Amino acid sequence: MLRVGVMASGGGTNLQAILDAIDSGAVTNAGVEVVISNNPGAYALERARNRGIQAVCLSPKTFENREAFHEALLKKVDEYDLDLIVLAGFLVTIPAAMIRKYRNRIINIHPSLIPSFCGVGFYGLKVHEAALKRGVKLTGATVHFVDEGMDSGPIILQRAVEVLPGDTPERLQRRVMEEAEWQILPEAIDRIANDRL
Ligand code: GAR
Fold first, then answer.
1. Left, alpha or beta for 29 (phi > 0: left; psi -120 to 50: alpha)?
2. How far is the CA of 124 from the centre of ligand 1 (A)?
3. Cα dist. 140→98, 144, 163 in Å?
4. Which of 6, 9, 13, 174 most suits a substitution to test ligand 1, by most atoms within 8 Å of the C-beta?
5. Which atom of ligand 1 lies at the shortest distance from residue 9's CA?
6. Which of 83, 35, 31, 30 is nearest to 190 (CA)?
7. Structure confidence at residue 197 (pLDDT)
8. Beta bridge partners of residue 108, listed in sequence order
9. Which are the catalytic amino acids?
10. What is the dihedral of CA 172, 17, 193, 157, to 10 degrees?
11. Cα torsion 115, 116, 122, 123: sign
12. How far is CA 104 from the centre of its chain?
């Protein structure tokens, strides 16, 4: 059984997709042990509590400096003896020490087809704004391993989504979530849990 920790900063719809996929049997041999957020108001924490899953908030604002926050984050993650850490809309830089310690055991979902619209400054709605501005006809989502760079680790899965006339960043974001993110993130976890990478 793969012990999974999910880290999320916001609404947690990707977390929900993982939990639903575990319930439906689309993901097997995996269980979410803990949800960690940097944001006390993250609805992802509420989703975890509703399911009886440990919900932990570590806000950088409550620490003296970044280093102290990073140390506490790694210590917290270590407590749960995790096999896989899933960044599901976690908008905080992961400590280098955590990347080293959990190499090939941290995955991230990004709302574009990497290498388009990724790297510094590309997160959340900004990604879809940039895609619309550039006028791409296809966008999508990517699940990848996390390395020291920004959205630069090995790609696990990608799914393309068509940009439609009249799309706004919000509409595009929603369609990318529905058609790509909520499908490929659980699928990647299932593959890792069942040695099918
Ligand atoms: C998702 O669209 C995810 O791909 C994105 O944040 C959103 C979180 O939504 N992540 C990034 O942009 C990371 N660079 P959620 O909290 O509803 O899952």
1. left
2. 5
3. 28, 13, 9
4. 13
5. 16
6. 30
7. 87
8. 87, 144
9. 110
10. -10
11. negative
12. 14
